[in-house]
Every structure is written in structure tokens, then in C-alpha cells.
Amino acid sequence: MKTKLTDLAGIIRSKNSGPYELTMDIIFNDYEGFEQVRGAKVINEELVSKLYNITPDQIVGIVEFEPAKAIKITIRRPLCSGDLGETDVYGAQQHAPLLGLEFDL
Amino acid sequence: MKEEFRILSTTAILGYGFPVASFEEGMKRDPHLIAVDAGSTDPGPYYLGAGVSFTDRDAVKRDLELMIKAGVERGIPVVIGTAGGSGGQPHLEWNKQIIEEIAKEQNLHFKLALIHAEIPHEDVKKALKEGRIHALEPGVEGAGLTEEDIDATSRIVAQMGIDPFIAAHKGGAQVILAGRAYDPAVFSALAVEQGYDMGLATHLGKILECAAICATPGSGSDCMFGYIGEDYFRVEPLSAARKCTTVSVAAHTLYEKTNPYILPGPGGHLDLTNTSFEQDTETTVKVRGSKFVPGDQYAIKLEGAKRIGFRTVSIAGTRDPVMMSQIDHIIQAVKDRVADNFSSKNLKYYLNFTVYGRDGVMAALEPLRNEPQAHEFGIVIEAVADTQAQADTICAFARSTMLHYGYEGRRATAGNLAFPYSPSDFHAGEVYVFSVYHLMDVTDPAAPFAIDYVQL
Question: ipTM greater than 0.85, yes or no?
Fold first, then answer.
């Protein structure tokens, strides 16, 4: 049965980390869900590349932060914040592809 | 045992406001310091480049009135970091005038320290020649900056660390108004000066700079209180509606950071590898183990923005499925028509169409770009050129061309766009981009940041 990320993680958000990077936080409801997703390596480079239409070299890092039962994805911004062609100066609305994520555990 | 050092943080960004009841709760705890961060690069390069605040003047004045009045009456230092949002010279001057008004209207007399953070272009060029400039942009080796880039930049600021604040505290300032500052330094400097641990003070500063955002429910417009002890710090919300939990505080450590374990700042980095978060009381959290690791070379972060032109925008929509199915073709045809029409004028311009309902929010990152589900598109037509008049010309011509463009299969020959407003086109004014985002090695962490004292 497919599990939805939104069923396990109460907070899924994005924001600039400086003007050149975009960082997505997935904060799980409990340690069980965090450990399950971490253990199954659901959030990996291949998935992030697909979700964000990018090549793996654009991924800065995928970091698990146990104290917050969180997984953090950081990617390069396609543009420096505010450059011509910008659509999200704060980077606050780039989390959406994660909301639809479903996977087998 | 040493007394805890107590800090009242009033709000996430000066001007975002806070309940008076929370502030009074904080004052009951007899703080050693009242501090607030006023800045962010989040709102983009315009505010830095143009010398304009992104927060409202009256809202900033309201917050500062409460803070300064309480601080002066009880002799508690009040510190403001990154004045006016970007911390350049016009931002500092803007906030200074607000403080002068408050002093006059409230009949308050005190010593004000102004710490400047704008870096002269010549100093940055000198550092570039001496190999003291390093790029922060990922993938860029070395400086990735030229003298021409520096000349083209309208304004350059540097983030100060704790040293200029310590100097101003020692200089007897009652109120310290600083230009661009590393957010935590506003909160940590006085504690470090009094012998508290740099790692704990910096980590606490990182949390306090967003005030009640680290509580649950979080808020960017409520106060937060911090206590630093010998080998720990504690955070406490000041509204009964909020709690700090280990997860809410730990989660805040992730916020706007690339790697939550290693957090670089002026003079080194904060290492949270061995940090523990413990529920202290029902509403407070105790944190231990955060370490500050000094770097081999003290470096300050430079931020600069340059003006690249003027922008005019037009907002429109389409509900026509035939038009929507051909939107890329239509946009290209309009761009070609504009280019052709002004080809003899030698105009330099940028013309862009953002299509909401397809990829208006995520642009290149949008995975569903080729399978939009919307029954209507919002279209923002944007022209950027060397002058506002030229931007107007390009925007207006693109708008009228798109309105009447005869695409394949068109039924609606009366017009292709719905405009919500008359006039349909708006001046968005000067356009800036970030042009400097670099580290500069310095030998004296305080030297780039001159301090003036004013007796009010």
C-alpha cells in the first residue's frame, strides 16, 4: 500500500537559504515515521531530481536532522533570488511537489 | 554559580509588532538586554540597492517606542541589528530619524551608538587585489568578481559579528542601532562580553532573532525570552498561548539553513553536532552542547546590489482553451513582433511572460509544466529596460500585440486578454539584482564598522 508523505510529515516547507540556494524541510509527526522514511531512503537524489525537474548536480545536500525528526533537501536556485525571470523571491512556494509524494514502505 | 544572562527578543523583524502583554511579561523577568533583528535578504535585492526599508515606518516606530521607553527608564541596553532591513547607510539614517523622533516626543535622553556597515567600493577593490575576496555562490571558484562588477554595484554592506556591538556596549551606549549585522550577534555580543559561552550565545541568538517563530504555535509577531547559563541556554515564550517544545526549537534550527549541523558566520561556525534539546518546563526548552568553532581566517560576508534598469508590468488573464493550448507559440510570436517593430531603435530590453496556472510559481522547477490542469491562465507581462519610458514602450506594445494576436483556430476575434485594471500597465520602478555575495577576509573584525555616538 502506498504511504503519503503528508500522512507522516506535518510540516513540509521551502525557503531560500541565502540567495543562491533553496531548502526544503520535511518535519515528521513522530520518530516512527521519520525512521521509516529514513530507513527506506525514500528521499534520495533520484527522487529529488525528478520532483524538481533538475539534474543531480543541482542538489546541494539531503540531510537528516534527528533532533527535529526532519529531513532537509537543499538545491541550487535556478536563478539568484531576484534575478530577471524570478517567480518566487522568498522561495516559500517551492515545497509543493513534495506534498503529492507517495511511496512504498 | 553564575547568574543566568537574560535576553528579551521582541519580534522576528522590527516592525512586525508584538503584543504589549508579552513585552511586559518579558520586562518582569528583568532582562539584561532588549534586542531585535530588523533585517533579511529574503525580500530580494531591491531594498538593499535602492536604500529603502521593506518594513513600514509607523510600524517600526511603534515597536521601538515600547522598547526604547522601557529600556531607557530601567537602564537596560536596547540593540537593533540590520537597521531598515538591509543595513546600508540610508537604512541606518532612516531608523536613526525614527529614534530621534521617539526621544523628542517621549522626552527621553540617552546615548545612541550608530554602527555603520556600508563598505566603500575602494575597500572591496583593494581586498580583491589582495586576494581577500571569496565567492559564496556555489560552483564559483576564487573571487568570481571583477573591479567592473564592484563599480557597477550601487551599495555594498558587510555583516558585522559581535565585536562592534561589544565596543558600543563598552562605549556606554543605551541604544545601539547597527547597520547590516549577523542576526545572532545582536543578542549574543553582550553575553559573550560578560563571559558566557560563544557557542551557546550564538545558538540562542539564532533562535531569538526570529522571536516566537520557534514556539508552537509559531508567530513572527510575538516576543521570546532567552536565558544563558554556564553550560546551557533556555528559551521561553511570553504568551500563554505558546509553548516551546524540543521539536519546535530543533525545527527552527533548520529554518533557512543549508546544513543544520554546521552554521557558518563571522569568524567561524556554529557546530550543532552534539547539541541536545531537552524539555525544561512545560513551555520552555533547555539546549546544551552547541559549540562555536573559530575559523583560521576571520571573514565577513559582503552583500551588494546593482541597478539594471526599470520595470513596467501588465497583468492579464485568459479563459480561452484554444489560446491556452497555444500559449508558448503566442508568447514567442508576440516577442518576435516586438523585436521586429523596434529593430531600428536599438533598444536593449528584457521582455518576459509569466503564466500562472502553468508554471508561474515554480518556473524551471515545475514538474507539471507540460500538463497544466488550469481552466484559466494569469499572465504577467514584464518589460525591463534602461529607462522607465522604454520599459513602458515595450510593455505596452507587447500587451496590445498579445491582446489582438491572431493565433491558429481563434474564435474570439475581439480580444485575447482580460485586464482587471484600467490602466492596465504599472510602473514597478527601479530593478536591482544581487551583484556581490562574497566573503572578505579581515584582520580586525571591528575595523570595517565605524561607530558614532549621539547624545539625545
Answer: yes
